[in-house]
Amino acid sequence: MLPSTEFALLSRIATEQTTNRAPSLVAGVVRGDELVWSGGRGFVDDVPPTNDTQYRLGSITKSLTAALVMRLRDEGKLDLNDRVDAHLDDAKTEAFGRLTIAQLLAHTSGITSESPGEWWERSIGDTWEALAADLTPAELKLRAGKQFHYSNTGYGILGEIIARLRESTWLDALRDEVLTPLGMSRTTPHPEGVAAKGWAVHPFADVVLPEPTPDAGAMAPAGQLWSTVDDLARWTSFTAGFSGDVLHPDTVAEMRQAVAVDDGDVWAMGYGLGFQLVRQHGRSYAGHTGSMPGFVACSMVDQTSGTGALAMANTTAGVSILGVVIDLIRTADEREPALPEPWRPADIDLKLLELTGLWHWGPSPIHVKVLPNGWLDLAPVGAGRRSRFRPVGDDVWEGLDGYYAGETLRVERDTQGVPHHLNLATFIFTRTPYDPSAPIPGGVDEAGWRSATE
């Protein structure tokens, strides 16, 4: 990046590290699948941190766990609407077996936020059997589906489902299916090589206290992992859809879609299927924050520009890690907006052209366009319902977003094979408003259109 941009980025993290007294702080900016800037401030064992210094990720681990669940879904080994007891069928799951996988992923299951017993983040973790035995009906705090209720415990359950279906451990599955394919060789369950120590900084004096970093046991899928700038940059690119062979970009986009909102009237924070969602300054971000005693971390992507950023610090509190990451993204985009790719003609089936142009839903005009990937875009002329569709069969399309997400669009042809009307979830779209030759529900007045109201 330009020297002036790099200085502005470095200034932001330097100010944060000094003002909020973090022993060390590292950060990076990502575009596409490339780390375009990185920097660090402070000291780790009296040496400045580097891109290869490990920090604990905390709850960013949840997004990686969610990726494993989505792989299982895409392989047909589970459905997101499956109940937990469809995959964990032992008697100890009676209290939470009726919860669904989707509810656990999106934190809408109502199960307790923290595992029963001692503060799990500072205690040696127990086995799955012990965790399951502790999850009595009293740990169901809210009606399932009632509202967003962040739950570390839910991701402990998801980790066990992964282990059962893979006939492995959560960690082995993660290493084999996510970390290794993405080249995240420095992302580990415990610190290896150069790693920052976790510290608590005294609120009223410049002194520090070491924090424990025990193994979380059955709760590991909620927050166990350690990583580096280089590795977390790869995961940030994954969040933006540069997902390699781990997941299809469409599945990653599905994970970024809002499922739950956690703050009422005007939502600024929400959650998808394993990703946190943030709305600030008219922009929408997806990723995850993380905190464990001694550490804070964050990885976010601007869903419009595609620019991502990450930051990690070895302090329990004080650093506004989400604010740092969003400021890095905004600084990069404002100072060096990414240039759009040059336009060029698309390689599409030219037969799709007969579906394009002006259609009408009743009297409302709609434009149908072919997208570069061969999908259809139904866009109202003015206000209205807009959705994209992908082909799923001959003259059959599936809605991808908006009001018509999941709905079926069928192209109905005349005896000459020419598209005559569209049937979208029972709504009839015609080339002219209320075409009397189309099967308009309720029929069309025989007198037709008139020049004055009668």
TrEMBL record:
InterPro entries: AmpC-like (IPR050491), Beta-lactam-related (IPR001466), Beta-lactam/transpept-like (IPR012338), DUF7586 (IPR056008). Pfam families: Beta-lactamase (PF00144), DUF7586 (PF24491). It is an enzyme of class 3 (hydrolase). Transmembrane segments: none annotated. The keyword Translocase does not apply. Residues 16-318 form the Beta-lactamase-related domain. Its EC number is 3.-.-.-. Residues 351-431 form the DUF7586 domain. It comes from the Bacteria. Keywords: Hydrolase. SUPFAM superfamilies: beta-lactamase/transpeptidase-like (SSF56601). GO terms for molecular function: hydrolase activity. This is Serine hydrolase domain-containing protein. It comes from Haloechinothrix salitolerans.
